[in-house]
Design goal:
98 residues, alpha+beta, 3-stranded antiparallel β-sheet, two-stranded antiparallel ribbon, 14% helix
């Protein structure tokens, strides 16, 4: 069953606390809070879909040195002497203080 997000509506019509409810799709939307009896309305939120550019996917792809080089990037790691190239065909960097 899907989860629906509701928010409490105060006496002035302003949004208040949000909460989630698991309900059948055929059930009508709630109009009052199930515990407090306050007025509520259903909130529509955009879905979060982990596509090609999702942060999780990017972190995973950029943590593998072979993948980085295959994609044409160069990886540098900070050391006490500056930055060292660890993978890729980019330019070598000069040490700090040179």
């Amino acid at each position: 069953m899907p989860r629906y997000v509701y928010e409490v509506i105060d006496d002035e019509g302003q949004a208040g606390e949000r909460f989630e409810m698991v309900e059948p799709m055929a059930a009508p939307p709630l109009t009052v809070h199930p515990e407090t009896g306050q007025r509520v309305r259903r909130v529509f939120l955009p879905p979060w879909i982990a596509g090609k550019s999702a942060p999780m996917r990017a972190e995973r792809a950029l943590s593998d040195d072979k993948q980085i080089e295959r994609m044409g990037f160069t990886k540098y790691v900070k050391t006490d002497h500056g930055y060292e190239k660890t993978v890729g065909s980019g330019p070598d960097l000069k040490p700090k203080n040179s």
